[in-house]
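INFO batch 0412 | record 1 of 1 | parsing
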Amino acid sequence: MELLNVEGKTKNRVMYFDVLTTVSMIAVVILHTGGSVWKTNQIGTLAWDIALLWQVLFIWCVPILLMLSGIKMLDYRTRYTTRELLKKRMFKVLIPFIIWSIITYVLTNPISLDFIYVKNFFNLFFKGEINPIYWYFYVLIGLYLLLPVLSLMIENSSKELLQYLLLTNFIFQIGIPFIYNIFGMDETQFEVWTTYMKIAPYAGYF
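INFO prediction complete | emitting tokens
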């Protein structure tokens, strides 16, 4: 099978990419039917147990979708410039994200034509609190902004660079949380760890 790329040229279609994309999208839908898992007042109920089961069985879909995005975009320099990439991707993601954030805010907050109403929107928007399910937009936009750097790292990768990335990921994702757990401390109070963890795991999948 063949498909058209952005220049209109045909290229071989990798069938299992399509299969993974389709299955992952179905998994995302199923995953979102288990929203009650985040409701602490339902812990121990049958509904909560089922929701937890869905989370355990289908949480893999997010890393898979990120990996598929990385496969398709990390070599973007062979097709278009960084400016063209960001323009295309941001137009498709950022604008709809802003529009739906505004719609969600208006529908969930009584409309008021004063400065506080607008200020509150921006406060919730930049804190990622308009709607919990919009968290993926923040991750995706962050990865798009990092894409020029990540693509250069891939193009100029070496054994030493890969070892460095593996080591830093091990320290921040396994080492520091393990030490903090031993001493009964909250690792989220470690500012460097908190900042790193906001994007590093997703960049690793990407």
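INFO post-check: Residues 82-108 form the longest helix (27 residues).
INFO record closed
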